[in-house]
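Subject: complex prediction, re-run

Hi both,

The earlier run crashed halfway through, so I resubmitted it with identical inputs.
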Amino acid sequence: MYTIGETAGLLGISAHTLRYYEKEEIIVPLRDTGGDRRYTESHIKWLQFVIKLKETQMPIASIKKYASLVTEGEQTALDRLNLLAEHQRSVRAQIQMLQDADGMLTFKIASYRTLTEA
Amino acid sequence: MYTIGETAGLLGISAHTLRYYEKEEIIVPLRDTGGDRRYTESHIKWLQFVIKLKETQMPIASIKKYASLVTEGEQTALDRLNLLAEHQRSVRAQIQMLQDADGMLTFKIASYRTLTEA
DNA sequence: ACTTGACTTAGAGTTAACTCTAATCAATAT
DNA sequence: ATATTGATTAGAGTTAACTCTAAGTCAAGT
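This time it finished cleanly. Structure:
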């Protein structure tokens, strides 16, 4: 069980952001007797997954959608599968685009090398 | 020579965005006798490059920086090389991160498949 | 002559995703 | 006993990158 500060530290995000994710219904932490948020190992795992989705450009709105499917339970498994499969296509498209850009940069950089070494 | 509308169509961005890039000093189009913007082939090529940088998450501020180096001329070639080399490192880091995410998604999706097919 | 559509400008509005502020409270450290 | 630390809330502010609005000019088509 972690406090909001510990959780933020562990994940490398701010406590502010954790409260924002809660407001967006992406995560629902427990509360201790004093009313403070408490995060379990399974909350942490879920947040790490959310952060991975974020890093790969999934918008908060889609993450929210996925989170709501998880909350709805077992019978949404197929919907979740489809959502992730769709996102995987987007991730692969991003990789392709970045590889093209990498090639272009290699070429540009080589031109500048020729220029500056001449 | 293209009008702003033609250029926008060619590049798949809006005329508004082209004016915005001009305000940010990323591009300086010519003007016809009526004062309307005119874009040459070389403007188009430059804009295509700018769009590639954008797609690969280079912030407008950095693109602006690069554009100003280009304007300054030959003697900034080494600075430009360094800027692009730095960006290439970022592009490669993005590719790496996306490939990890792709693996994770493959795993998650496989789990859901097992679940929904059982 | 009139309408249509593209262009001009300065500047306001939008969206996503935070990020911070203010005012307050509760537990711990000196 | 007081000071610090870290938590709480609602709601305001920020940043990047557009995106649009208003008010207007101008050329071409009917």
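Strands of chain A lie at 30-31, 37-38.

- K.
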